Amino acid sequence: MTTSFEPLLPGTARALLHRVAVAQAEGRAPSFVGAVVRDGALVWSGARSCVDGHAPDADTQFRIGSITKVFTAVLVMRLRDEGLVGLDDPLEKHLEITGVRDVTVAQLLSHTAGLAAETPGPWWERSPAELRPALADVLGERPLLRAPGRRHHYSNPGYTLLGSLVEAVRGVPWEEALRREVLEPLGMTRTTVDPVPPHAGGWAVHPWADVMLPEPSEHLGVMAPAGQLWSTAADLGRFAAFLMAGDERVLAPETVAEMRVPAAPAAEDDPDGGYGLGLQLLRRDGRTLIGHTGSLPGFVACLWIGAEDGLAGIALANATSGPLPSAVAADLVRIVAEAEPRFPEPWRPLSAAAVDQELLALTGPWYWGTYAYGLRAVADGGVVLEPLRGPGRRARFRALPEGGWVGLNGYYAGEKLHVVRRPDGRVSHLNLGSFVFTREPYEPGDAVPGGVDPEGWRGL
User: Fold this and answer.
1) pTM
2) 268: left (phi over 0), alpha (psi -120 to 50) or beta
């Protein structure tokens, strides 16, 4: 994580601390920590506690629950990038028979595998791991509730399977692979499987009285890849910086961006949510947030990233229920984004060597039928095709080595755009997945599918 940063304005810092103070008071949390990352640097952290003078800081460990799933997903994506596992591979191609039939790695990552949400038997978060020594004890006799791939249904056992996949392919325990491949490269020395002082204790706060009860802290055993980790606001800030920009030592920026793309639709009861490959998605305050929430007895946590704003909000509390870390983390992002909006990078022209005269000649208006589009050249030989007025399909395209471009987003993601030339070498039209774009709308002699009426344009 970047150490050089522009500090927040005093008014912004006060607004952030006020939000944390309200969350601690109204959520009746023994302690609450908030933090903000901006452009890769931890620019603010603050805390409130019920014990005067003993508020935790950004180096105090809290249990982060299901935020652990993002770390497990990163390990799986590393396997994919190394060619050891395919996202469309059935899990049982790499793991001993589990009874989940043709469930794929991608379906497990996006919670679309049709697995049960929880394990059979006692409440797994509050019972000894010895009660679930093997995958069979986690999955039970009927692991699949519905056909895979049809809908999003959050599954803790699904991430247990992914952790076991990592162990099977790497040949080392999940926690060893995590430490070696993710935590150490990112400098996350305060993220651990078991708590290391200073750490917060987990508490249950009585729903109808201002009294507390200590919560047990069980090791999750085979379920650890779904929710075991302890971490700090500072370490989660380092992880947030990685999830914004990637890190070649862990995952390339393109792979991290792939994880953020929606892979599962929103659930019926959560129209503003969604899920990528290991990352929750949330639409709030006009921006898309990516990250994850987490909870275990005695703790709640959340990490939200507003990638377009270059911001991340972190919220950690040591109470089983009451505090709302998801709302707080989102509000921390919103407060900074609104009070100190991000400066755009200054516009700069291309270098003389980067100007492609043939591409320059292709820029400007094009017509798909009577729909007016503009083709704009961008860096690295790419182009943007966008409607000139009204709604339409806008997409960015990356240049291909063999010529032409491939769509990167929206309706045209993965589709090929190429130039079609006449026998004499002059440009005839653009072809985008069979759609023809011409320089004029329905110009006679142009390659318009279906031809052009010979009588031409007319009035009524």
Assistant:
1) 0.90
2) alpha
